[in-house]
Design a protein that fits this description.
Blueprint: H1 2-24, H2 32-46, H3 53-82, H4 87-99, E1 102-105, H5 112-128, H6 137-155, E2 159-167, E3 170-178
Antiparallel strand pairs: 1-2, 2-3
Helix pairs in contact: 1-2, 1-3, 4-5
């Protein structure tokens, strides 16, 4: 039962990632096959009685999280079909990803909020290490601008994904190109 719940959880996370990519335009088709498989498993698991209350609680949490995502996906799919502007949702998605420590920046001018969120994450990590010396926002903004422009030119990509990590007691910023239409 534990393995089955874990597998369902992993499939929901994979489905979430694929829907995120679809709504951002990275994937050209919605992940309908995986969505059908996950929905079928959720229906089967919803009628299953777990052997103890802890597993039952975990299963109910996983199903509730799936239902929340499902409502969000259905609303976005409906908006796409009706031709409504979903760029607003893209920026909401980018901000949600930023809360998870992933900052996708295409331009420091248009993505000012994301750059400021990246700066707050850097500051948080420095303070977590007990450091009082934190780089100032203009310096971080300039570094991100230079890095973003350099990576976009080198890889001919549409944007750059930044992550703040702590390695060997030092705060580091990792940058990866995000390939897509420019």
């Amino acid at each position: 039962m534990v393995n089955r719940i874990q597998k369902l959880e992993n499939n929901i996370n994979l489905l979430k990632a694929q829907y995120d990519q679809y709504f951002m335009g990275v994937l050209k088709t919605s992940p309908s096959r995986l969505a059908d498989e996950v929905a079928k498993e959720v229906r089967a698991m919803a009628t299953t009685k777990a052997p103890n209350t802890a597993l039952q609680f975990r299963l109910q949490q996983v199903i509730a999280r799936y239902n929340t995502y499902l409502n969000f996906w259905q609303r976005n799919l409906r908006d796409l079909e009706e031709g409504k502007n979903v760029r607003r949702r893209d920026s909401d998605l980018a901000l949600a990803r930023a809360r998870n420590g992933i900052f996708e920046i295409s331009s420091t001018e248009t993505d000012r909020v994301l750059v400021e969120s990246l700066y707050r994450k850097i500051t948080q990590e420095y303070r977590g290490l007990g450091s009082r010396q934190v780089p100032d926002l203009p310096r971080v903004r300039e570094m991100v601008k230079q890095q973003t422009d350099s990576i976009k030119e080198k890889y001919k990509c549409s944007s750059v994904e930044y992550r703040v990590v702590v390695e060997d007691g030092k705060v580091k910023i990792k940058a990866n190109p995000i390939m897509g239409e420019k």
